[in-house]
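Researcher: Re-running this chain for the archive, since the previous output was lost when a drive failed. Same request as before.
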Amino acid sequence: MTDTSPGMDAIISIGSPDRREGAIAIQAHARLTPKRASQLVSDGGTTDGLPLAVFARYLSESTRARLRDLDVGYLDLTGNIRIILSKPGLVIETEGASVDPDRQQRPARTLRGSKAGRIVRLLVDRKSPPGVREIAEAASVDAGYVSRVLTLLDSEALIVRTGRGKIESVDWPALLRRWATEAPLDSRGTGMTLLEPRGLSALLTKLADSNEHYVVTGGLAARTVAPVAPPRLATIWMRDASDAAKRLNLRPAEAGANVLAIEPSDDSVFDGASERDGVRHAALSQVAADLLTSPGRGPAEAEELIEWMIANEEVWRR
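Model: Regenerated structure tokens:
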């Protein structure tokens, strides 16, 4: 340890058997959010040209990812460590806890649940970020709840707000991935696997001719803008999945199923739907989120779709 400058809590000297020496500057934090991590480099203080590493009791995956992007090292008490030095030549990278072991000490903070999902969809789909009251009205949720969710998103650097709290921008790809992680597909409805013996083309014809309340999602919907490979599974949100399956002559099946029908826990899955060739498709933000935690090649299809969405925002964001 040596004397430190502002912006450093300690300097650790490291030596190798061949007598080469290096050092790393340490900053200690009681808690570090992705937003605060992003400010580390631009904040006052100096590391005197030394590589920087932060220390905390626990660092979340999103915080660690942001530190990696900034080329800042880290270590926490659960064993999450990433220290890389070119001199004297040192690489330490280990994984510790993936969730905060003391999280019960703070209120739960998650995007799981229908109300949070509605807020996410609004933030992703709107070209101009809406305000708290507009979100509350459009999502049919309490303004206080909206404020709490926005505070979470701000601390996780998923949105940027001005001094008065107005949303300036939304990192919608990261927000979609975070929502999918915390509210995976199987948590947002009740699914049943079915078989259309004549294949997916026959299924689409039936849907186009039906009066069912549904939207197609997953790979079958994504292929209209970002095809990866011919879909083998049709994922469909259906308000009354069991009754609709009977009306569409779909057979219950566990092995060999080519249809996954899901009754949603919230009707927001139908918001923003569009019709193509007589078939109703879910909004692209909904499709991407559903694919991210779908089985098989779903996550890869999601990333292809998100890349298309990034390049064509003017097409789908309203």
